[in-house]
Amino acid sequence: MSLARRERLALVDSMTAAGPEAPTLCGGWTVRDLAAHLVVRERRMDASPGIMLKPLAGYLNSVQAKAAQRPFEQLLEQIRTGPPWWSPMRPLDSLVNLSEMYVHHEDVRRGAPGWKPRELPASDEAELWNTLRRMAKLAYRKSPVGLALATPDGQRVIAHSPAAGEDPVVLTGPPSELVLHAFGRNAVRLDATGPEAAVQAVDACDRSI
Description:
The protein is α+β, with helices and mostly antiparallel strands and 209 residues long. The protein has nine helices and four strands. It has helices spanning 3-18, 31-43, 57-67, 72-81, 93-96, 98-109, 122-139, 175-182, 196-204, and strands spanning 147-150, 156-160, 169-172, 191-193. Strands 2-1-3-4 form a four-stranded mixed beta sheet. The longest helix is centred in the middle third of the chain and has 18 residues, at 122-139. It is globular, with a radius of gyration of 18 Å.
């Protein structure tokens, strides 16, 4: 079973345990709101482009709000089963949904007080590192300072090139934590080196993808 599929099933379990009105790390979204987002993303090809295209965001929001009114159990079942057979996402699920399912699973887990990072197998961390390498420059394109992402075992990727003579901020941690930061989450456990103001600037910058 792919990591994307395992995270999908674990996400549904965490949503069930948390309940529909529990908070998440996705802005002001509840677990129900997040579930509606995931269902619309995979099953409403007419509305899902609004995730990326601002002119279509209003239509997306109306479709998502309507989806959120469905029974919570129905939403969870549609997330569990994944993209329908006719969706172009279905044959690419392990690729296009890995970061989506992992990040949103942590959104639910870390929306509650007292959360702790999970210890993932090395193979899962390696897969998340490959994902991070592909999207790092896009995620940090608006960083006002140079930035490098590093793992404790010495892997490193430049996410935003520093200016001439500038030392980049370095964020160090397991890929599972670095991926969350790259997707805009600050509820992470990372070590940061660099001037305090520069580190704060990285945390504050728009990391939407």
